[in-house]
Design brief:
Blueprint: H1 6-12, H2 18-25, H3 28-33, H4 39-52, H5 81-84, H6 96-106, H7 120-133, H8 136-141, H9 145-153, H10 159-172, H11 184-196, H12 209-222, H13 232-246, H14 257-261, H15 264-282, H16 286-314
Helix pairs in contact: 4-10, 6-7, 15-16
């Protein structure tokens, strides 16, 4: 069993709230009950709850919860459920259905008293129960932080931040970090490259949401794993695009139909459409207009195909 102290947690999250840090530090028995006892499992667990609680600073979502109103997938079927069952706890339990389900698992009336989920000690129990329900110990054993994040978040939101917490946790609890967080200079260099490619973000050495969004856009265009992390494949894609731009061959990220029609292929296609329409106008009749309609539709499909093809080529 790996021990946790409030001092270690304070190092992991320097601005953490004292009562939250204390609840986690005193949670050895709870963690043991859910077999979150190996260095890898503990570090992954702490990395996730640190991110979800904004560095152990809150056990209640900052937003009002109104965005969840009417979300039947969360069980919010009664007016006011969005706000009443907003995200709470160190893993941000959200939605009437989840409050009901995890309340039953823990023999707590979370549905009737949703504010209980924000009590630090109770929120730790909820987080551990969720961890068990989603089978996250197995993913932690494989060091699959992306898989764990998807189970918790439904996507890869905040993966960079979660990785930073994981690296710090591994250093604190006796294991080498999987990935050393990038220095500010390295982040600035990455941001400068992204700005050079036309992405709008501030070069400040902090890999925030705009930087992550730009990385995802690069990954999507390059056809590599879209996880918001600047790994070797992503850096290679950025390098290749910069080389093309330096050589004058980096095209715009997106092409409109007008852009395509300016190309030789587009001019030929557009000319075909115009010729067909003029021919029908010169020889009016049901048959001529029917033929013109078919030809125009076919040529329009051709233009759309050119747009897609040229956008794929840009990647």
């Amino acid at each position: 069993m790996v021990t946790i102290t409030a001092g270690q947690l304070r190092t992991l999250a320097p601005r953490g709230r004292a009562d939250i840090l204390d609840a986690v530090a005193r949670g050895d028995a709870v963690l043991a009950k859910y077999a979150i006892t190996t260095p890898s499992r503990l570090c992954h667990f702490l990395a996730q709850i640190a991110h979800e609680s904004a560095g152990f600073r809150t056990t209640e979502e900052y937003a009002s919860g109104a965005a969840y109103e009417g979300r039947r997938d969360l069980g919010n079927v009664i007016r006011g459920d969005g706000i009443r069952y907003k995200g709470r706890g160190v893993l941000q339990l959200t939605g009437r259905a989840n409050y009901r389900a995890y309340g039953k698992r823990l023999a707590l009336d979370l549905e009737g008293n949703p504010e209980m989920a924000a009590v630090p000690a109770i929120s730790l129990q909820i987080a551990c129960e969720y961890w068990k329900a989603k089978g996250l110990n197995a993913l932690a054993d494989r060091d699959d932080i992306t898989g764990i994040t998807r189970k918790i978040n439904g996507g890869a939101n905040g993966l960079i931040d979660r990785r930073k917490y994981l690296a710090k946790a591994r250093a604190l609890w006796g294991a080498a970090p999987i990935e050393t967080p990038k220095s500010e200079d390295e982040v600035r260099e990455l941001q400068q490259d992204l700005v050079a490619l036309g992405y709008e973000l501030t070069v400040d050495g902090f890999d925030g949401k705009k930087t992550e969004a730009a990385i995802r856009a690069v990954q999507k265009q390059a056809g590599v794993l879209v996880d918001g992390l600047a790994g070797p494949a992503t850096k290679d894609a950025i390098r290749k695009r910069l080389e093309r731009r330096t050589a004058g061959g980096e095209p715009p990220a997106d092409k409109t139909i007008i852009d395509v029609l300016k190309t030789p292929e587009g001019m030929a296609t557009g000319g075909g459409i115009l010729t067909t329409i003029l021919g029908a106008a010169a020889n009016p009749g049901p048959l001529q207009w029917a033929i013109a309609g078919v030809v125009v539709v076919a040529l329009a499909v051709g233009v759309a195909y050119l747009v897609r093809s040229m956008r794929r080529a840009d990647a």
